[in-house]
Design a protein that fits this description.
about 250 residues; 6-stranded antiparallel beta sheet; about 45% helix; globular
């Protein structure tokens, strides 16, 4: 592979997933790239508007990245239907909802609609998170058995919070239950004070995506849980039906 190109891609992926932007020293430490090598790359990316730099010296995604993402979405009408489904979910459940796919053991968040509530989970479109620590990721992994999980995560499961499952055997058992129940869940595993539920979306029997809802712990009760799961399952069925009828492929995701 071409190492200079790989470095550019690693920088862009790092910025998109950071949320708050990153400084030169952050890139150097995280990516193990000398600062002297990073500076001209960052300057070029800023010049072409793929990155921008704020007054604090932090690099953020630029407008060119937004344009590329918008062009990607526009090429796939199915995403418009998914977005409508997410809007309906938020209207009925009052909580933030997500749509994502599995990519190299991570959840890639393809779309979201925010709750109007003042306190909600914040995850940006394009961000990647370890699938094993999120409900949407567990929905995406739910057809896998322990041996497949060990192959997908050869270095083990790293904790994001004190509640994250870090034992592959325990995760495999929970995924088995998720297969039986038809939905996946997590309690403060990816973010403190947040509970999430998710339902997989299938195409020709294979899990290709998932939808989820994030609920602050203080707004959670059994009645809300039951209503959330039923509503998610209905939305997932609608999206699955639409995806079944399309030949669209999102890279190697669908």
């Amino acid at each position: 592979m071409h190492q200079p190109t790989i470095r550019v891609l690693e920088i862009l992926e790092s910025v998109v997933g950071s949320g708050e932007g990153k400084r030169l020293t952050d890139f150097s430490s995280e990516l193990q790239i000398p600062k002297s090598t990073l500076v001209p790359i960052l300057q070029t990316l800023c010049g072409y508007r793929y990155l921008t730099q704020d007054d604090m010296g932090r690099y953020q995604p630029g407008t060119a990245l937004f344009s590329l993402g918008s062009a990607f979405s526009g090429n796939f009408p199915t995403l418009n239907f998914v977005h409508q489904q997410l809007e309906q979910l938020v209207e009925e459940l009052g909580e933030t909802c997500y749509f994502g796919a599995l990519e190299d053991g991570y959840v890639l968040y393809l779309d979201k609609v925010d709750s109007r509530q003042p306190l909600r989970m914040l995850t940006s479109i394009g961000r990647r998170m370890p699938a094993y620590a999120t409900s949407i990721g567990k929905a995406l992994l739910s057809d896998m058995v322990e041996k497949e999980l060990q192959s997908l995560y050869p270095e083990g499961l790293k904790a994001l919070t004190a509640h994250t499952i870090t034992d592959v055997e325990v995760l495999a058992k929970q995924l088995g239950l998720a297969r039986e129940e038809g939905y996946a869940w997590e309690t403060e595993e990816s973010m403190e004070h947040i509970r999430c539920f998710a339902v997989p979306i299938r195409k020709h029997g294979r899990i290709v995506a998932a939808v989820s809802v994030a609920i602050p712990v203080f707004r959670f009760d059994k009645e809300k849980k039951d209503h959330t799961i039923v509503t998610l399952q209905k939305a997932a069925a609608q999206i699955s039906g639409t995806i079944e009828m399309t030949d669209a492929h999102f890279g190697n995701l669908f």
